Write a sequence for this structure.
């Protein structure tokens, strides 16, 4: 079983390197950063864009009115709490205060946040679409004969590093679990490996 674990770890690195070679550095690198760039763009501009939407449309007002209407109906339906006049009057006064002072402010805050969230989601999707188009164009340029070899070698190295990182994480996880239960079957399998045992031992020594 130990040799099987070592073979799987090597295959992960080899497969990642092969896929990196096939896809190329430009596509892999661009896809890696595209999500990060889309998130950064969204975080920077979602509030200004959301404020423009709020200022120039009535979307937020419609959301606010819907919240007020639905919440008020629920409150009114459950406002009867006692047959005692004094208790009911006190309850009605408290409910009226909530409906007049607290509810409008909360409904407004919720409506604005809904607009912000919707704006952020739309901006993220649009950013991803635009970046996907840019990636496709960049990949087409990288496929030119003069750049193709560099793109493939870069992709191979990228995949190699990615596969090595994945394998290292797996080695750390498996090695740590095995250490926690030294008498278990996993620990025995780890002891019969060469690659996993050597790499994990080296990492532990460095730490």
């Amino acid at each position: 079983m130990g040799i099987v674990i070592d073979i799987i770890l090597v295959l992960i690195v080899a497969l990642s390197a092969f896929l990196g070679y096939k896809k190329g550095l430009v596509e892999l690198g661009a896809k890696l950063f595209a999500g990060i760039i889309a998130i950064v763009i969204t975080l920077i501009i979602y509030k200004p864009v959301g404020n423009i939407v709020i200022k120039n449309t009535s979307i937020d007002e419609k959301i606010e009115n819907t919240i007020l209407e639905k919440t008020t109906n629920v409150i009114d339906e459950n406002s009867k709490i006692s047959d005692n006049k004094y208790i009911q009057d006190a309850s009605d006064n408290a409910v009226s205060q909530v409906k007049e002072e607290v509810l409008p402010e909360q409904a407004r805050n919720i409506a604005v946040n809904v607009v912000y969230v919707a704006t952020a989601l739309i901006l993220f999707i649009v950013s991803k679409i635009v970046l996907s188009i840019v990636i496709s164009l960049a990949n087409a340029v990288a496929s030119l004969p003069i750049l193709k070899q560099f793109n493939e070698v870069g992709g191979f190295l990228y995949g190699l590093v990615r596969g090595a990182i994945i394998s290292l994480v797996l080695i750390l996880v498996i090695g740590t679990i095995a250490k926690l239960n030294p008498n278990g079957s996993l620990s025995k399998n780890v002891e019969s490996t060469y690659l996993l045992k050597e790499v994990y031992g080296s990492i532990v020594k460095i730490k």
Summary: The two ends are 28 Å apart (CA to CA). Residues 2-206 form one domain.
